[in-house]
Amino acid sequence: MADKLIIFDTTLRDGEQSPGASMTKDEKVRIARQLERLKVDVIEAGFAAASQGDFESIKAISLAVREPIICSLSRANDRDISRAAEALAGAERKRIHTFIATSPLHMEMKLRMSPDQVLEQAIQAVRFARSFTDDVEFSPEDASRSDIDFLCRVIEAVIKEGATTINFADTVGYGVPELYGNTLKTLRERIPNSDKVVWSVHCHNDLGMAVANSLAGVMIGGARQVECTINGLGERAGNTALEEIVMAVRTRKDYFNLDFGIDTTQIVATSKLVSQITGFAVQPNKAVVGANAFAHASGIHQDGILKARDTYEIMRAEDVGWAANKIVLGKLSGRNAFKQRLQELGIALESEAEVNAAFTRFKELADKKSEIFDEDIMSLVSDEAHSHDNEYYRYVSLAQHSETGERPSAKVVFAIDGVEATCQGNGNGPVDAIVNAIESKTQSGSELLLFSVNAITTGTQSQGEVTMRLSKAGRIVNGVGADPDIVVASAKAYLSALNKLHSKIEKLNPQL
Ligand code: KIV
Ligand code: ZN
Prior knowledge:
This protein is an alpha/beta fold. The protein contains 17 helices and 18 strands. It has an eight-stranded parallel beta barrel with strand order 2-3-4-5-6-7-8-9, surrounded by eight helices. Helix 7 links the parallel strand 7 and strand 8. Helix 11 (267-278) packs parallel to helix 15 (374-389). Residues 14, 171, 202, 204 line the site of zinc ion.
């Protein structure tokens, strides 16, 4: 019988460490519910001690999601571990994931601890975590740059203390596949109690090898858990992409001979949800979930596909959830049909008042756009969630004028803490004009790092989804806005980013 590969999703923890990808509690719960539908085995829901927001999100996810194991990260100290245990208290199945750096560089320069002190702290941490749950994961951080003898000492000791999963972390994406896999193999061979635990891989993509390293860790090293994120989201160049691991293992079952529990038909929906909520667009040529991943442009390929699909297709688009855009609702659809579609999409709004508010927005949209697709509904609910969470600034309306030979101008009306304000501005283009108009009132002094527009569905009728990334005093946030009018979408995105800056969410980065 084939072994099972455990899929450990860390989109809500390591993925969220991408600059600007921070999510609200409600957004995290929505993603966690979708991850449950995708049937991941473990959801790393956050890092409880990092911020009150993370703590609350883990708590909410523990209650809302019952099938997967819910996990919290914690540094190797009592406070972090207690906080993780507290946040996870309501979970059906919980895991505490504790870590400490083991590389000479990290121990000396970051922790300022001797190897013996690190060893002792790792032992204490695992012992303490075991007093809350019998599912404890230990990660030697920066393991791929650690001394192998020292790693063997630390890992043997934490297994004796009751760690049940050992995660071989390639924290800075330094690994190369064969070496990474072989080091893991050596560890398993040299550590006498290595057979008592599940071995896990956790790779970063700094050299573009996170997926290859993870798969080498599985095939050469014998790992049976892969830590990954949707769309490869994560700090710097990101983490191992879940969809690539899953589809590689499935498509090349002849080679990997592994099973997993993932429902692959949920992959695209999950990818879109994460992209929509974080504002991180998926590149068109991204494997599995990119818009072009299954598009065949050349005549020879198209001809081959028509004669026999497998001439140029190694996976079927429908197996990962790509379906032709479906018109699901329209202007005449009623509240019940809308509510039912929300349910089918797995969107659970907390109260009837929220359903009503979302329905009102749906009707507004249906007035502007005759065909409403699933993507529109998802984006509309995201907009709704943004406006509820941090509604210091709220878009009301705008007028904008552009004409050849004239400098574009804009008038924007928005509420500041409930009080409506009107402002005017002009600029090089319509978007510049609305940003200048808004800034004339808010004077945020932030810097615009990124402005991107994506069509949510196909055709010129599509809503434009705009992402604006702002930076201020070392904080980076993403705002997202959607509307059939991309200038309006831009104003919404800008205000959404300002709201995030205003909310002052602070969190610790575990790798600092
Ligand atoms: O990359 C890393 O080392 C991590 C650990 C905290 C597991 O994310
Ligand atoms: Zn990581």
